[in-house]
Amino acid sequence: MEERTTLEKSLKPHWVWAIALGSSIGWGAFVQPTNWMADAGPLGVIIGFGIGALLMMLIAVSYGFLIKSFPVSGGEFAYAFISLGRKHAFISGWFLTLGYICIVALNASAFALMLKFVFPAVIEQIPLYQIAGWDVYGMEVIVASAALGIFGYFNIRGTGLSGQMQFVFCTIMIISIVVITFMVGGHPGAGLENVQPYFPKDTTAFAAIISIVAIAPWAFVGFDNVPQAAEEFHFSSKKAFTLIILAISIAAVLYSMMIIATAMTQPWQQTVGEGQVWGTAATIQETIGTIGLVLLVTALTMGVFTGLNGFIISSSRLLFAMSRAKILPEAFSKLHPKYNTPHVGIIFTVVVSMFAPWFGREALLWVVDMSSVGVTIAYFYTCYTAFSLFKIKKGEDFNPSKHVVSPMKKSIAAAGMIASLAFLALLLIPGSPAFLGIQSRIALIAWIGLGVIFYMAKRKEFNKIPKEELNYLILGSKKIIAKNRS
């Protein structure tokens, strides 16, 4: 049996917390408040994100248990393997790979979009063409590609460096959001009276709240980056659950603060009705001046940078784990000779993401919407695996090396499975508030088709690997932990 390649343990707890939080708070928190308020009103958005955060915490219980028990790169890929075998491991890994790379690409695109708003004369240079009504400029492509290249380089230089950067970016982002909220709240003419009415007049409070709950997997995606980095923890993996809960809680608070700050500037329905390209920036600048815009741009920049950094880490680790299990080419599990990082996966993620700005923002959003399905499927696999390992009592099939008696946690894992299926239903059932558009559904079908072709091509080779070897390669154990059904 060949020696298993492992990653260096260099991540500190506050860096991992920053990876989870920074990946959860991206461009949406700063660009989307007016769109969200138009659908749900200020209170509807805040309650919706609060409920979404609680549902994510239910799912996080399963993540915390599995990270503690199996601190290996691969996360949901490894968890699906533990409970359902190699075929499901491939399905989980395939969907997650797309989801992570799409989010990397979207963050790079969002950075170019922000600069386009602040410095339109600079970014709107070298006009190329139009896709789905979106004008694509050569300078946009250059800016997005440069951001990707820089963060790819930092990630190759070492996990410690990228972890430190993530914590600094997160700290600056939080400070900026807090200062914006208090400056708006203390400005004459602004205040909580502008937050009323709490819900839109043309919809029920329930429908408004559910429309926001439906996007929770997208809004909070990022806490699931923690298991991808588990192999590199320079601390006990028992702390992972606490770090995830802290990240989700603070993310919900930061989302709510941006909604309140935007709504307090003037009657929120007026802000929504103005139809500005970036309503939050326009109304905050009008209320507290250029300093407000500078703080918002700073917060957005940090949010984009933490998203870029966090998801480059996750996608490269997922590719590394799948390569180590011999599903992907061996190159992805080779480590950099100097920095001991999975550099091929990092370069691959960056290069693939560099294609995205050429297709325009609307086309990219179709793919990102579709990738929400993949992330939700990964949530389900994680909760199912935890559910299968928790036992109500010791029975005939109880194995003390992998099972834990905990009726409460088994119930929470079951609730996480139900929440995951509910999120999936909201994305796939026609008429639901989060139903995928036709373009996203086409992209989803295309990705599934590619996955089927790839799996069929690799199936024989993958299934020939002995059970003991696959357990060792994926989980670092030579014992037969997983069922390994093909």
UniProtKB/TrEMBL annotation:
Keyword Amino-acid biosynthesis: no
GO molecular function: transmembrane transporter activity
Transmembrane intervals: 14-31, 43-67, 88-114, 134-154, 166-185, 205-223, 243-268, 288-320, 341-359, 365-390, 411-429, 435-457
Record-given protein name: Amino acid permease
Pfam families, per the entry: AA_permease_2
Topological relation to the membrane, as annotated: Multi-pass membrane protein
Organism lineage string: Bacteria, Bacillati, Bacillota, Bacilli, Bacillales
InterPro entries referenced in this protein's UniProt entry, alphabetically: AA/rel_permease1, APC_superfamily
Keywords assigned: Cell membrane, Membrane, Transmembrane, Transmembrane helix
Organism: Virgibacillus halodenitrificans
